[in-house]
Amino acid sequence: MTGDEALPSGDPTDLLALDAGLGESERATRDRVRALMDEHVRPHVARWFADAVFPRELVPVLGEAGLLGMHLQGYGCAGRSAVEYGLAMAEVEAADSGIRTFVSVQGSLAMSAIAKHGSEAQKQRWLPRLATGEAIGCFALTEPSAGSDPAAMRTRAVRDGDTWVLDGAKRWIGLASIADVAVVWAKVDEADDADQADQADQADHADKGDGGRERVRGFLVPTSTPGFRATPIEPKLSLRASVQCDVALDGVRVPADAIVPHHPGLRGPFACLDEARYGIVWGAAGAARDCLEVALAHAGRREQFGRPLAAFQLTQAKLVEMALEVGRARLLALHLGRLKDAGRLEPHQVSFGKLSNVRAALGVARTARTILGGDGVTLEHSPLRHALNLESVRTYEGTDEVHTLVLGRHLTGHQAFR
């Protein structure tokens, strides 16, 4: 173990006594995942981060624990509540954002896309294997020239007899180089797509481009398909214990039934992104809590001028400010989780949570590093690693600017993206 062992459950950082508001099964899930992280991640994550290694051996461990697609129903998935899923993500990200990113890409993006939009045959083929970690999935939406504006994607799929041919490029695609299947989003001509979507789905999409002749569709592409190439992006200063890639699609030919049949249009991938953003709300709160715990423990044992750092007013002020942010972040995550379990969570509320909690977590991480002094820039302690990772979390699944405009649109009724 490093010097960053987590404080026990029920520690004084829970100033709002939120633990008392959790049900028995919720506390059991949290404690089980915390123990799993203590055993399998915390002792090794500093080295993984330093060496920029994603631990493939961890995947079946996460699958066996029911963490992959744990909020999905059936097909070998755990079917846990939104709050239990959130509590699990908080514990995983308290250990490392890169590991939580793996769980989110696998479960909330790739598996969620198949569960929400896939055919029964696609669900039967992929979801059980993805749930155990036997197979790994990725979600290929973002492009080099279309990050925050996915409607501007250039990747195209063209119908050729009983096959589709995909050409284009994607960037910052988590897990792509180790994935077995990629959910690839591409624009298709409506004439090619006419027999693929039912009438209700066709009426549902609202992102027609090029005069209304194109729509966005998802395709399940085995990564062994000729023309699919994933290249890890290196070197990185963030999420070093994870994998992000450039993806090239050069004449990738897949059968007609590779298309994800339901909900054409950007509403398809956006529904999956909201699932991932929900996990981030909890994950960021977990990272912030870990930073506070580490700083508090260090301040109690580190002596300067004949007394512990925790006895100095300036240190106490920092600890209190961090505790306020952590408490607010955890309370917000729990509130959104209760809304989600009740079926009342709205997309703008997820944007609120993502924007607020990641921003708060970054501030907590940076302040915690100052309490650690010079030791804080080493990988013996987690706060600076969290701060570096959170810069990526701040950017993916919608930047601060995008979520600000989502909330601005909700407040004013005016679209300000363009």
Write the layout of secondary structure elements.
Layout: H1 24-40, H2 45-51, H3 58-64, H4 82-95, H5 97-117, H6 120-132, E1 137-140, E2 156-160, E3 163-174, E4 181-189, H7 190-193, H8 199-204, E5 214-222, E6 228-232, E7 244-255, H9 267-301, E8 303-304, E9 307-308, H10 313-341, H11 347-372, H12 383-395, H13 400-412
Parallel strand pairs: 1-4, 2-4
Antiparallel strand pairs: 2-3, 3-7, 4-5, 6-7, 8-9
Number of separate helices? 13
Relative helix content: 40-55%
Number of domains: 3
What is the general shape?
A: globular
- Computed CA radius of gyration, to the nearest angstrom: 22 Å
CATH classification, class level of the largest domain: Mainly Alpha
- Helix/strand/pairing category: alpha+beta
Annotated CATH homologous superfamily of the largest domain: Butyryl-CoA Dehydrogenase, subunit A, domain 3
Which stretches are low in confidence, meaning pLDDT under 50 for 5 or more residues running?
A: 202-211
- Number of β-strand runs: 9
Characterize the biggest β-sheet: 7 strands, mixed
Q: What pattern of helices and strands is seen along the backbone?
A: HHHHHHEEEEHHEEEHEEHHHH
- In the CATH hierarchy, the architecture of the largest domain is Up-down Bundle
Distance between the termini: 50 Å
Overall mean pLDDT stands at 93
Find the CATH topology of the largest domain.
Answer: Butyryl-CoA Dehydrogenase, subunit A, domain 3
What key attributes describe this structure?
418 residues; alpha+beta; Butyryl-Coa Dehydrogenase, subunit A, domain 1; Butyryl-CoA Dehydrogenase, subunit A, domain 2; Butyryl-CoA Dehydrogenase, subunit A, domain 3; 3 domains; seven-stranded mixed β-sheet; two-stranded antiparallel ribbon; 14% strand; globular
